[in-house]
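Here comes just one.
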Amino acid sequence: MSPQDLLFQAQDSVPGGGASIIGVNCHFDPDTSLETVKLMKEGLQAAKLKTHLMSQPLAFDTPDCGKQGFIDLPEFPFGLEPRIVTRWDIQKYARKAYDLGICFIGGCSGFEPYHIRAIAEELAPERGFLPEASEKHGSWGNSLSMHTKPWVRARARKEYWENLRTASGRPYCPSVSKPDGWGVTKGTRELMQQKEATSEQQLKELFQKQKF
């Protein structure tokens, strides 16, 4: 189902003719989430509908995930840390979101306090003030100008952090993963929630399906 179809489904499901806010939450990274909201916005404009837009993506880079998002990645949920986006990534996300017309800009799984602070700092000109925690550091790393090492002082500028290609420091790890493809979708028996704990036999059956 396309984002536009989801949009119309959401509009039709709300009594009174429409939702007051529409957007995306969780499962996908900032870039994918913004692209989805962009399609929703185009659908709204085509239907001559007006509502607020929101975005709350993951704080993980997940370009390799499938339709169900990061839950299909083999690292989910306890090995996702190498995918965490930087505070600078989030500043760029906040600016893109604002320029797209999104007024509710936040985050979901993986977001840390410094990520939320980055949103507030990027949009300080529009908000009219900085968050209190900004007193602890300089904007875009400019406090590094006081560092003892000259090559670190050279990083005290927006251009450096905005264009940095970060490394994982994991020489034997791939840059992307292959999502689990179990073919499990909504309505499948395996997705039915049960009250009792998963039995040893059920776990053995799942382990047999697991591929490394």
Notes: The longest helix spans residues 30-46.
